[in-house]
Amino acid sequence: MKGLISSLSFSDHPHVSLTKTPTFLKIIVLSFLSIFLFFIIRRFSFDITTFTTTTPSSHEFPMSFTSSPNQTTTSTVAGKPPPPPLRRPEMAVERTGIIDENGAMTNDFVVGEFDEELIDSVVNGKVNGTDEALESDGNRGGLRGKIGKFKVCDESMRDYIPCFDNVEELSRVNLSERGGNLERHCPSKGKGLDCLIPRPKDYKLRIPWPKSRDEIWLSNVPHTPFKEKAGNKWVKKKGDKCIFPGDGTQYVLGANQYLDQISKMVPEIAFGQRTRIAMDIGGGVASFGAYLMDRNVSTLSIATKDMHNNQIQFALERGVPAMLTAFAKHRLLYPSQAFDLIHCSRCSIYWTRDDGILLLEVNRMLRAGGYFIWKAEPVYRHEENLFAPLKEMEDLTRRLCWELLKNEGDISIWRKPLNNSCYLSRPPAVQPSLCGVGDDPDNVWNVNLKTCIMQLPENGYGSNVTTWPARLHSPPDRLFSIKMDAELSRREIYKAESKFWHEIISGYVGAFHWKELNLRNVMDMRALYGGFAAALHDLNIDCWVMNVVPVSGSNTLPVLYDRGLIGVMHDWCEPFDTYPRTYDLLHAAALFSVERNRCNVTTIMLEMDRILRPGGRVYIRDTTPVIEELEEIAHALGWVPFKFDGSEGPHSNWKLLIGEKRL
């Protein structure tokens, strides 16, 4: 070493030796230390790599792998935390996004799968393969304890619907305005629900579909109609159950025979092919929609909360799509050209009043070439007119350019025109007049009704949908009528969303055993293009989905209905228009990260608890800070929460929160 150092003297300066320079000595020492540390680190890195490669690799899935039940920090199950797998350089990297390497939109991507054994051990509350429950004490989790448990509301609120049972706001309604007391009047800010709605005494887990079409538990719907109206035939009491015979005051020979009669009157209706989406107005306990499901028709039953205020609750308990709404002063919360068929049997609506303003709303929602069926029988009413005479109805529909196809007994069937040619050929003095060009027929949130006819799009959008089931996956033309940033890539976004959710739900079906849950009433709280609902259909989950389009985003409702799906516009800062204990599953993808800037997330979670059935589940996918906040609220609601990382690992910004509302 001494010789080596001596030889490193400057040759052109023989009198200057580097060995006598303090700086040179420091450089030599640091060099040797660096070489020594390099070999130590290299050996240590090799050991780590060897260890991790013996661990099973993680699956490529955005919302799977690691879970942390009852905790706010992410950890693995049973105290066996596998170190994060290190990807070798030679391993191929699977792309999981919808943007390719050139920045272009593509639907060629891989989502991945769940680790089913790991998920099962967490969700079923087992540790190390035993039945030791994954319980949490009151001190676990950094965010636990910031919110106390919510109190239970008074027993009188067990069927409370905030926007329809708001006594304070209803007292201010001008009763001289037709239907004003039947519309929604939500609590003002700061006066919303702050407690948990109690379930009825002796409440039981619902009867599974399709058996629930014919019978439900009496204790689940304590306010029963046969207590008020003896001798009715549409619902009967049998022991501890309510029985639905399928006949009664509306369909003397039965609902199926009534549907057969309609098909014979107008074969072109073609239930399940040309006619996929229907609306049943004031349809009692929704037997019309219940029996149409056997014919591949999805029917939304609507009614008001009035003297028969539990009809919609009966429909939902049966497992039939239904909502509370009223034909009154505002547009219904559905888009233009939404329904292939609209049905009114003894629906207690005076269609020809006020220059036909209510039938004009039906005309707006009815698809071009769609059918309106009116079964005109007198019913008990609290107005001066029992029902609109057929002669008045025929006169109004003629001015609307509807074609009367068949009139048989008390059943009349009209068809809406396919284009504007009839509208434009009417004499100028004919009323109702045409609406202005700038009147958006899909603008429905808090929009007043108008006595004018909405013109149909000149490009045929809405009228040129394919038949079912092809329309479920055929990108509709109305994709291009949505107000959004993307233009040329809309079809690609549509297809990518469908593929993404198909693979996600496939993972749910395997890992979370969705086919064993008997899901029936499902809600997608931020539906976008309906990929979630389409995936449930494709994977043979026998359920229906209420696709909610929030007012805070783009209005994709026309696309949903063109696909053959049901949906509604809603503002999640307000309560939803349904009874408590309505849905088996609530799904919210990236909802809270958007709405938290507008709404109180605790209020939204309380509303979710109100409409969720005991035994139901909530699936929330959102960013890490949002999920941590929601997990805390879930504990306060009394849910049993489970949190999962994405396949990207614990540092990914997206998490999945599952909440179980156990009975």
Shape summary: globular
The CATH superfamily of the domain at 219-425 bears the name: Vaccinia Virus protein VP39
Q: For the CA atoms, what is the radius of gyration? A: 31 Å
Binned, the helix content reads 10-25%
Number of strands: 19
* Unreliable sequence segments: 1-19, 45-96, 125-145, 379-384
Measure the end-to-end span.
Answer: 80 Å
Explain the overall architecture.
It is a single chain. By secondary structure, the protein is of the alpha/beta class. Among the domains are: 219-425, Vaccinia Virus protein VP39 (Rossmann fold, 3-Layer(aba) Sandwich), CATH 3.40.50; 470-661, 3-Layer(aba) Sandwich (Rossmann fold). The chain has helices spanning 2-6, 22-52, 116-123, 167-170, 255-265, 287-292, 311-318, 357-365, 390-399, 421-424, 490-511, 531-538, 557-563, 592-595, 601-611, 624-637; strands at 215-217, 236-238, 241-243, 277-281, 298-303, 322-324, 339-345, 366-375, 403-408, 411-415, 433-434, 452-453, 521-524, 544-550, 566-570, 583-589, 612-623, 640-645, 654-660. The strands form four sheets. Strands 6-5-4-7-8-10-9 form a seven-stranded mixed sheet, with helices on both faces. A seven-stranded mixed sheet has the order 15-14-13-16-17-19-18, sandwiched between helices. A three-stranded antiparallel sheet has the order 1-3-2, covered by helices on one side. Strand 5, helix 7 (311-318) and strand 6 (322-324) form a beta-alpha-beta unit. Helix 11 (490-511) crosses helix 12 and helix 15 crosses helix 16 (624-637). The longest helix has 31 residues, at 22-52. The protein is globular. One of its GO terms (molecular function) is methyltransferase activity. The chain crosses the membrane at residues 23-41. One of its GO terms (biological process) is methylation. Residues 62-89 are annotated as: Disordered.
